[in-house]
Amino acid sequence: MVGRWFDSKGWRDIVISVPFLWLLVFFLVPFVIVVAMSFARRAELSPPIAFLDHWTYLQTGNFARLLDDSLYLRAFLTSLWNAGLATLFCLLIGYPMALGITRVTRSWRNLLLMLVILPFWTSFLLRVYAWMGLLGANSWFNKALTGLVNTILPADRAMSSIPMMNSNFAVVLVMVYSYLPFMILPLYANLEKLDQTLNEAATDLGSRPWQVFKDITLPLSIPGIIAGGLLVFIPASGELVIPSLVGNASDPMIGRVISDEFSSARDWPMASAVAVALLLALVLPIMAYTHFEKRAQERVEGRA
Amino acid sequence: MVAEGHKPFIRIEAVSKHFGGFTAVDGVSLDIMKGEMFALLGGSGCGKTTLLRMLAGFEDPSAGRIFIDGQDMAAIPPYERPVNMMFQSYALFPHMTVEANVGYGLKYESMSKPERMRLVREMLELVQLQDFGARKPHQLSGGQRQRVALARALARQPKLLLLDEPLAALDKKLREHTQFEIMNIQQRTGITFVVVTHDQEEAMTLADRIAVMDKGVIRQVGPPGDIYERPNSRFVAGFIGSINMFDADAVKDGQGVALSVPALGCVIRAADIAASAGDRLSLAVRPEKITISRERPANAVNCVSGAVKDMAYFGKDSLFRVELPSGALVSVSSVNHARGHGTQMPDWGERVWLSFEPSTAIVLKV
Ligand SMILES: Nc1ncnc2c1ncn2[C@@H]1O[C@H](COP(=O)(O)OP(=O)(O)OP(=O)(O)O)[C@@H](O)[C@H]1O
Ligand SMILES: [Mg+2]
Predict the structure, then answer these.
(1) What structural domains does chain A harbor?
(2) pLDDT of B256-298, one tens digit each?
(3) Which residue, among A197, A203, A205, would best test binding to B if mutated, counting the most B CBs under 10 Å from its CB?
(4) pTM, full prediction
(5) B358 shares its domain with B219
(6) Nearest 5°: phi and psi at B156?
(7) Rounded Cα–Cα distance for residues B321 and B337 (Å)
(8) From ligand 1's centre to the CA of B25, what distance in Å?
């Protein structure tokens, strides 16, 4: 009887509707509030926002300011650049690791996967502080590195330390470190289910190992690359903590800008406008990509 | 098609393969001639795929050597062997069109693009898929996929083509059709084929020669007729086709050596019994070599009688199971010459006589 009930359509609807409800309450509603706020203006109220009296006159001044003030555009570009670099390096480091994990015996595999997620067991903040310690001018790490670099530099240009802290370099480095598991895990999931006989078939047809990789493994792992890339790129472009702690304050990322507008400037509408613009900048290209991907797929199938 | 007296094209010398403590292939030696259609036949897990994978270069033999066209294969990686393989699972590249799949093996050959396209079209025509070039594998039926896999393996014009259970996924009708297609292709191209199968009928239809494998060991090698008519062991006799098998003792009488078969309750004469009195042997007789009749046949040499226990009608022939006084059951198949259940057909429970020629009796060492 109970089994029958679990199989019933009503139950299925409930199961499906739970995540939808969750998204509605905790994502869509707050998002609508943020969008609405982005069309408001700052006021000395609590909360510090005021809408115009008539909805027909949407206040687009916040968005105009986004384009006017080069601070915002620069922050956007810095964010996209840093996130892009971090994604690229995560891919370059994570792909061989994920591929390597699929090529070892099962017990090794579990151990290595454990090691990949092991850093999550310590606080994220603590790990960023650890990096601050390493990158700072007086750390043993910086000193050792400086000593190493000085051996190849001419004596008159020797450095006292390498300026690693408070730079975009540090931001990208720490982001690569922090987000690497988000690249490795989806890539591993994708690579692990690839059929090994495809590789053998390609080898049998005369391809050398690197040609097999280029023709078979790489194209078949594109879904994993995209999934891992999005999982790294999206949070990295909105990252706040890492640039605040190890970044260059005069060249902020967009997350920092939103945070400053919200708390220091108490300009909630402007913060919302930046957030909406960031979301659009990230989501529109992805939507366009999926759209064209689907169209291309349909074209292939339609022709056959 | 066997080129007699020539040097073998493939020489497998005492090859073994161990996986940990398990021996998958155990001291196999085989010579395969150029242009031959050779079948490896055996039950599941007997090491057929492993032997094939060693020929293709995906597994290294634990012992022994493999020569292809006179060249020792030990140090030659799979991508440099003049061998192509059609995989048990086809292993088509899902992200490539049929055309790209078939042309993949030519991608790193030095040939012009038009030349490559011409070859691909030729291969697709050979397997009658010329209109399907733009499709992806998931848009094909099982039989079409199998043909793409065959075309892909043929495109490089290998000296040796390995087929691992090429027809296992096809229905009976398509399987028969494809068997003839494969034989056709083999005759036109002259490529040496090694076909793995566990279907004995398929091996019989396709092959010039068959090797019967059991637990990593080759039990018998020979043309299909030899394997069927002159099996060298109880295993091979039982594996290929159906057969009646009885324990027997060699006895000597006035006319030479004969067989005393307790289950049949009489002495059986057989051609060339290579044994001396007292040896324990087996007598094997194929169901279709036994004649069934209502009357005792005149001057039959080997003749027993029993009662029809059950019978089955298969269209072109019927199968009888006859119970002897000893309790032993003998299978007899009889071609249905007349239309319908003819009047001459024995009936349920009826007393019948079974007889067979000495030349059809197979004598095996226990
Ligand atoms: N990589 C391996 N590691 C361990 N054992 C293996 C390995 N490959 C094959 N074997 C074992 O070797 C034996 C022979 O395997 P093989 O695949 O050659 O059988 P097969 O004759 O092709 O059977 P089938 O008809 O089922 O395909 C099997 O018992 C199998 O379990
Ligand atoms: Mg097999």
Answers:
(1) 69-266 (1.10.3720.10)
(2) 788 888 888 888 888 877 777 778 889 999 999 999 988 888 8
(3) A205
(4) 0.81
(5) no
(6) -80, 5
(7) 19
(8) 9
